[in-house]
Amino acid sequence: xxxxxxCIPNFSEGRNQEVIDGLVAVAKSIPxxxxxxxxxxxxxxxxxxxxxxDEKSIQEVAFQLVKYASEHIDMTKHEGEHPRMGxxxxxxxxxxxxxxxxxxxxxxxxxxxxxxKELHIPIxxxxxxxxxxxxxxxxxxxxxxxxxxxxxLQEEDWAPDYGDRSIxxxxxxxxxxxxxxxxxxxxxxxxxxxxxxxxxxxxLRGSSGGYKYCKAIGLMLEDRKIAQVSMNMVNxxxxxxxxxxxxxxxxxxxxxxxxxxSEVIGLAPxxxxxxxxxxxxxxxxxxxxxxxxxxHLLD
Length: 299
What we know:
Low-confidence stretches: none
Shape: globular
Largest sheet: 7 strands, mixed
Distance between the termini: 14 Å
Number of helices: 10
Radius of gyration: 19 Å
Number of strands: 11
């Protein structure tokens, strides 16, 4: 049975359509790889690609995308609402079918080593690939962002896993790792006060005492002049989308603010959304495996 790996590289470019189109072309150029989805956000100035392929092909497309990004994205000129430290900010590998997490960890390390060797971009391993427990959390790895990385790399505990203690002058630093599927979930607020979004995000995120499997930041969408709570749900079965959505609604009410809408970035497991439908429809005794038609068709 063929092994299938997912790769979800995040690039620090969401405005220059020519560069985005170039990344798409590279993503489609490698046999054995399928580009499932890509999305770009001008306020975040970021693009997220979702690809699947076999072990060898997914490694090749990941490297070629990082290479293209390093040649066409200049981090010294980059501005955006989303935290970032490199032209390719993060490149995770996810086990999808007939492949183990350990195999994805091995893939991540092979790609990381090649990126550093051929492109001279320092690499941090994160999540399941992390060399130390404190490097599992991407937020800790990325703290300081591109501008603060030269100084951070000189700190005793922050030598890159691959590469020297100096950033690539224009491509910065990249995080590479293996992880389980997550859902990138954003909620937009009916206010231009970004401090409200930041306060709500602090309540939500596990590192501040909120939901253990939720990472959240508050930011401003300059093109729409609204504040956003931007989240990564790293385990949607242990922390559901509807739970964070309802918490945001509850906390926003104290400031007289309503929710304008929400968005899912990239692809999401079907169950994450079905769980929300089950909750809001108050469906009784629902069995996801037996009552979803597509589950039987896929079998």
